[in-house]
Diamine N-acetyltransferase
Amino acid sequence: MLNLKGKHISLRALEPNDLDFLYQLENDTSIWEISGTLKPYSKKVLRLYLENAHRDIYDVKQLRLCICNEKDKCIGLVDLFDFDPKNRRAGIGVVISNAADQNKGTGTEVVSLLCEYAFSILDVHQLYANILEGNSASIHLFKKLGFERIGVKKEWIRTKNGFKDEIMYQKINSYES
């Protein structure tokens, strides 16, 4: 039986009481370069988003889950995005909001749980991650979990310091028969 609970974290659906956390995270300009955000989100817009967060991944092509610590406090978000059921693939993205919660194995648990869910429940054939050059922590995480580097999108993301390459990592479902 699949359980979206690891040793130190769990993954759960977004709830209405996650509004303040979502507001803080989505308006954190330090992550806008990886999220593609160009302007702040209002609480009203995020409330509408939360009201629709229950919609099926097959309909909206995305699944966002809260990453919760052992005290059930939301410490980040993980997304399956660009879900493509015909070609059985999806992208994966992880954001852990506070530096104090990073580099403690949380990312490993999160990505492992989401891979298991995507491969066994959604019957995904492959997952991919797009990682900005220089993000050594994410590169290490995905390589450690069996994602292989499959390409580089040159000067793909414009940042305040110029353009950066985006590196694509992929993991094929090894559990398929």
About this structure: Residues 10-172 form a domain with the Aminopeptidase fold (CATH 3.40.630.30). The first strand starts at residue 10 and ends at 13. The CA atoms of residues 132 and 166 lie 4 Å apart. The radius of gyration is 16 Å.
